[in-house]
Amino acid sequence: MANIPMDIITDLFLRLPASTLVRFRVLSKPLFSLIDSPDFISSHLNHTLQTGDHLMILLRGPRLLCTVNLHSPDKVSDVEHPLKSGGLTEVFGSCNGLIGLSNSPTDIAIFNPSTRQIHRLPAEIVDFPEGSTTRGYVFYGFGYDSANDDYKIVRMVQCKGGRADELVFGFPYEIKVFSLKRNSWKRIKRVLPAIQLLFYFYYHLLYRRGYGVLASNSLHWVLPRRPGLIGFNTIIRFDLASEEFEILDFPEVLAHENIDIGVLDGCLCLMCNHEFAYVDVWVMNVGESWSKLFRVTKPKSVDSFDFMRPLIWSKDRGKVLLEINNAKLVWFDLGSKRFRTVRIKDCDSSYSAELLVSSLVLGCRGDPDEVKRREERRAREDKMMQQSSKRDDFLSKGFKLVL
Fold first, then answer.
1. Could you give the count of Cα atoms lying within 13 Å of 172 in the half-sphere of its Cβ?
2. Segments of the chain with pLDDT less than 50
3. Residue 323 included in any domain
4. Which pLDDT score, from 0 to 100, does residue 144 have?
5. CA torsion 291→293→298→302, rounded to 10°?
6. Residue 381's pLDDT is what?
7. What is the number of structural domains in the chain?
8. Distance from CA of residue 121 to its chain's centroid?
9. DSSP calls for 129-189
10. Cα separation of 255 and 224, whole Å?
11. Is residue 283 situated within a structural domain?
């Protein structure tokens, strides 16, 4: 390999998955420096996003967190992460190969499943407003701010307790944003009055609606209509660059329908469920105009059609991968209107799915504090092994331990 020009090696390495590149770092110091360099990490991510290579599906459930190769569903890998031992971990978003993890509002991390590197966020307490003593619902959002080359997490906490619960227009709340570049939290004080609806008329249908949908450098949440309380749907978005909220316009014909939001090919989309018999998928185009993409009629193999979300186009754009009822993945052929179930090896439980790209974002060294903890743990394990070896050697010579 010493005789191969470095630019050829770089071009070859850009085509490899991140998990392979992590192993290649030990081959030589030049390769170590190349794979760890910020320029290569950025180029590798851009190449993966442009080609669609090494795409995975992240499956998450009450006791399930694993990755599945998009084109080889028999290749399933469990996702192990340091937060897992702390409780029932939530996965609240995926972006550029990273996922957001949370055990509680103060135990949050950004994790790269491809490299197993984690960045634990500094613990940030919930500043309860006067009269509030406990927290209610917590909504999260995770995304990449391309304008500032920064990864950000939004945490919105509903506060309860005392006279605050009697507010006519909603519970008091706290909104904070974490910046990976600054490694710090910032409180958002200027919000729209509509934000109060997010905390009072909270979501009942799907737990996922508490997770922001990333598109066009913004996180989005849908406030669904509730007959007798709210007669129309509202979509709010949080601009990651300006760190401000605003109301998003969408087709008026959908204001009183059963809608949910998602993202397809980087664009925000709306799923309009008509009497749980079929779903129309709309997409927001450049200039924030909307158009209807396609209709999906309930498959015969599905008893109910409570939830449907598109994930990705096939490379020829003739099919689209759909997640149905948090329980199955199917390819939907737009021409024939037929479905093909994606059967995942050893996966029978219910789950929700997220697209995950193979990337080196966060680097291969990881969070310095986490690296230090791992080194200390290894040192303790090595010491215990040495002590155990000495004891076994002592016993093998015919001596008895005196207890």
1. 19
2. 164-168, 203-207, 366-368, 370, 399-403
3. yes
4. 96
5. -120
6. 58
7. 1
8. 15
9. PTT--EEEEEEEEEEEETTTTEEEEEEEEEEESGGGGG-TT---EEEEEEETTTTEEEE--
10. 9
11. yes
Full domain range(s) for residue 271: 257-342
pTM for the model stands at 0.83
Amino acid present at 353? A
Alpha carbon of 348 to those of 59, 80, 214, 327, 345: distances in Å?
A: 12, 19, 29, 9, 8
Residue 335 corresponds to which tokens in the numbers above?
């021409």
Give residue for tokens 């996003």.
49
- Beginning with the edge strand found earlier in the chain, give each strand of the sheet holding 55-61 in spatial order: 72-78, 64-69, 55-61, 352-357
Residues 344, 73: Cα–Cα separation, whole Å: 5
On whether the CB atoms of residues 244 and 195 are closer than 8 A, the answer is: no
Instruction: For 165-178, write each residue's pLDDT tens digit.
Output: 444 455 678 899 99
Beta pairing partners, 319 = 333
Instruction: Give 187-255 as a DSSP string.
Output: E-----TTHHHHHHS---S-GGGGBPEEETTEEEEEE--BTTTB-S-EEEEEETTTTEEEEEP--GGGT
Report the sign of the C-alpha dihedral through residues 312, 318, 323, 329, in that order. negative
Characterize the bridge pairing of strands 218-223 and 213-215. antiparallel
CATH number of the domain bearing residue 311: 2.40.10
The pLDDT, as a whole number, for residue 401 is 42
